[in-house]
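pinned: reference chain
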Amino acid sequence: MVCEQLECDTQSGCIKLYGALDLDSVANVWHQGEELVRSGEIGLIDLSAVERTDSAGVALLVEWSRAAREAGVSLAFRDAPQQMRAIIRASGVEDVLRMVARGGEGLEERMD
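pinned: its structure tokens
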């Protein structure tokens, strides 16, 4: 199943998510993204085009991080929207999700 909310570029090792990442849409990308992360082909999730999110979107990121750890794969997230950052802080999962700054892979990004 190909989801229009998920664009994958295995050459660059990046998944880009689009639109709403909420309870209604997470199921559409969950398994496809998890398989890509576990395969080791993906090491970066670009969140810059996520327009709206809720706790289900953050749960998705936590689960992909868990899957990456289990597979021995390094996974980072880039350009989380402010709404998502607020949920991440409120949920206390900052230490679980590795955020990086655009153009600086491997540079930790503060969750301001």
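why pinned: Residues 104-112 have pLDDT under 50 and may be disordered. The CA atoms of residues 27 and 60 lie 9 Å apart.
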